[in-house]
Amino acid sequence: MDIKKNIFLTGNINAGKSTILKKIIKELRIKTSGFLTLPYIKQGELLGFHIKSLIDESEMLDYNKIHFIGRKLINDRWEAYPEIFDSIGARILKDSLKSKKDVIIMDELGFFETNALKFQEYVFRCLHSHKIVFGVIKPTKTVFLNNIRNRDDVLILEINKENRDNQYKKIKSIFEEVLRCHLFGTSII
After folding, report:
1. Whole-number Cα distances in Å, 7 to 91, 123, 144, 149
2. DSSP H or E run through 23
3. What does the DSSP 8-state code read for residue 185?
4. What pLDDT, on a 0 to 100 scale, did the predictor assign at position 184?
5. pLDDT of 138-178, one tens digit each?
6. 28 φ/ψ sector (left φ>0, alpha ψ -120 to 50, else beta)
7. Percent of the chain at pLDDT above 90?
8. Contact at 8 Å (CB) between 92 and 109?
9. Residue 61 pLDDT more than 50?
10. Mind spelling out the 3-state secondary structure of 126-175?
């Protein structure tokens, strides 16, 4: 069986994808680089999403402020900010590739970055690198997301409310095997 070094979780909103990813990272005490996509909530209302670096503050320059990747407009439509992906997001991934940490987190990839070509380039550089990528990918169909799904070195695991407990155990086991192979130089794709 081929062991794939790039693992993505997918599923509907609130299925538990990011929770599983964070729980596995915490339980296995893995030092990571990469990014998180976080909701921006004000007075109980979701107003947008922003990108947060997981790279140590000492390695970063100006990542303390909020960098919105998408905002909710008055008519409940969303506006994407591909320039933030192409500047901040690409820089996070570039720094992640240089980092001594073996695992790059990408939580989450979706449709906001459809027009962020520089960011997409760095996502593919990370996937092609020797580093392990562990992330979340929206089930949305876009050229960018489909190109990730179609790679031979990517494993996609679906999470839903009914299977998330069983999938957690499976994903943790797979991720432990990928880490073992990575540490001991066993072949992974």
Report:
1. 22, 13, 16, 10
2. helix 17-27
3. T
4. 78
5. 999 999 999 999 999 999 999 999 999 999 999 999 999 99
6. alpha
7. 84
8. no
9. no
10. HHHCCCEEEEEECCCCCHHHHHHHCCCCEEEEECCCCCHHHHHHHHHHHH
Name the phi and psi angles at 70, rounded to 5: -165, 145
Q: How far apart are CA 45 and CA 35, in angstroms?
A: 23
DSSP 77: -
Sheet holding 6-10, edge to edge: 78-80, 67-72, 45-53, 32-42, 103-109, 132-137, 6-10, 154-158
Measured distance CA(161)–CA(38) in Å, rounded: 21
Q: Which of 1, 3, 4, 6 is nearest to 148 (CA)?
A: 6
110-119 core/surface letters (b: 16 or more CB in 10 A; e: else): bebbbebebb
Maximum separation of any 2 CA atoms in the chain, in Å: 53
Check: CB of residue 96 under 8 Å from CB of residue 34: yes
Torsion angle in degrees (nearest 10) through CA of 101, 104, 105, 109: 160
Please tell me the distance from the alpha carbon of residue 59 to that of residue 63, in angstroms, as a whole number: 10
Are 12 and 108 in contact by the 8 Å Cβ rule? The answer is no
Give me 165's structure tokens. 């407990």
**Residue 146 to residues 8, 80, 109, 111, 176: CA-CA distances in angstroms?**
12, 19, 11, 11, 26
Please give the structure tokens belonging to residue 30: 């893995």
Q: What is the number of residues in the chain?
A: 189
